[in-house]
Every structure is written in structure tokens, then in C-alpha cells.
Input
Amino acid sequence: MSLATFLRQGWTALVLMLVLAATASAQRDRDDDGQYQILQARYGTAQHHVDVTQQLKQLARQDRRFKLVNDVFGVDPDPGRRKTLRIFARGRDGQQRTFEYEEYSQVDGSQFTGWGRGDWGHGGWSGGWGDSPSGGGRPHGRDDDGDYQILQANYGTSRKHIDVTQRLKELARRDRSFRMGNDTFGADPDPGRTKMLRIYTRGKDGRNRTFEYKEGSLVDGAQFTGWGRGDWGQGGWGGGWGGGRDDGDEPQAGGMRLRIISARYGYGSNTVDVSDRLRELVRRNRLELRVDNSLAGSDPAPGRRKTLTLTYAQQGGDVRQVKVNERDMLRVP
Output
């Protein structure tokens, strides 16, 4: 082989390698080019939280997805309480948005600009855990526009309850989510009984809907219009506690009025809401059924034995909760 031929072939190989490297780099950039630029990340609760921006960068460079647990960040900022990862970001339209991930959930960085490169987190956020940089409450972006307008909120039981609309406004302005109980509202309207928070709303289609949260559960306002602004609760609800003018829409069973408060099916944090499905079955007088994936229409936790957690009440009775394992029979009294 002549020297000229050798040099020509070597030059061709070098050019090909450079083209392939440039193509791969461009492809990585496109794959790593999300819609939101991360400003800061914090992990913990509203009371105790830490800045984990740098730790999150290291995780992002290793993998696009990871499971959120204390070991990931090497710290437990509030022992004994369920923690949240908050990622504060800015969209391409300049609007700020907060992304929240509960402990044990999966974090996927595909929506963030420069995720895998760690090309983010250079400041630009000074709002702490719940406030925006301007001090006007939590970020008011498109994420504050849910599908339901809050009309009123009551807390208690069917026989004894109080209006907590104004208190709920105060909580919403401070934080997107909170764990609800007597201390939250400063009152126990029915001592000795399990209480509920009922949020009465109107959807964009004009239909009313009631959201229920059992005492001790987490309340997240993401689905409500103007949640963080407190731009709601100006009246428009006259249905009392029951959800209708005379509670005539409650499912009935065996001559007794049966109310399905909530029902979730799955394993651990991988559960789905099957309340409407059970309400439909009650209306058909199917009060005995086998618990399986047909309730959810899918398998929320493949390879795991799942559980149905049902909270219900009969007319004039206490709120009750039962748990039924997959493949076992559910028998509603």
C-alpha cells in the first residue's frame, strides 16, 4: 500500500469517526432537552427540608429514573414523616413551576433541560419550600389551573361537621399539599369518630363533584383551579354534607343507604382509585365480588400481591375501613 493510499484511508476513517461522534452528541442533546430548566431541588417536609440540588445532579448523570427514598440523598430531614422532593423549575415561556414527587415514587428527568448533563441548578430560586421569589405565595403558573373550581369545604362527619373553606384557603396559599386532621382545622367537630374533609366543586363541564379525604390523609390541590391563589370558595354550594340536595344519589344496598367513601387497589405507593367502579357495582346490587385486576382494568403493581382498601359508611353508621387481598372475596355488609 502506497503512502498516499494509507493517508487517504486514514483521513477517511478519522472524518467518519468525527461525524459519528458529532451525531451521537447531537442525539444526546436532543434526548436531554426537556421543557423546564431546574433552578433548585429540596427534599423533606414543609417543616424540615434540605437543599439536594447537587445530589440530584449526581443522580441525573447516572440514570434518567430513580426511586425516591432517604438513602438516595443520604439524609432524613424529618424522621417519621412522609417526605417530598420538590423541583423548582422555569419553563421556556418564563413561567415558574414546582414539580413534586412523594417518597417512594419514581423520578423521571425527561422533562427537564440538560438533565443527564447536570447542566442546571445555577440558582434563580429563592422562594424556599412553598413561596415564590416575589413572596406572593407558591408559584402561580399553569400548574395552578386545575379542572375543578372549589365551592365550599366541610370537615367532620355526616352528623356533625363545620365549614372550613376559609381555613383551607390559608393552607392552600402556604403549600400545595398537607396532611389533614383535627390540628389542621383547629377543631374536632365529632370527637371519637373518624372525620372526613369534603371539598365540593364544579367542573369545567358545569357538573358538581365532591372530593373526600379521610382524616390523616394527604390533601393535594393540584386538581383545583386557582388553588395556591385562594381564588375560590365564593359560594355556589347548597347541598349540605351529603353531596346532593337530598342525598338521593347515594348508592343503596339491601334497603340501607351505602356510601363508598374511597377505594384504592394496588401495592405500596402503586395504587389506583377504584371508588367509581365499586359505586357502580353497588348500584347493581353486586355486594360480593372477587378482588382482582379487573377492578382497575389493569395491573398497577405487576408481580406483587395487591390489596383493596375500602372506606365506606352506612346510613346513620360509623365510617369503616376494610382491606381485602387480591384473589380474596370482598363482602360489603
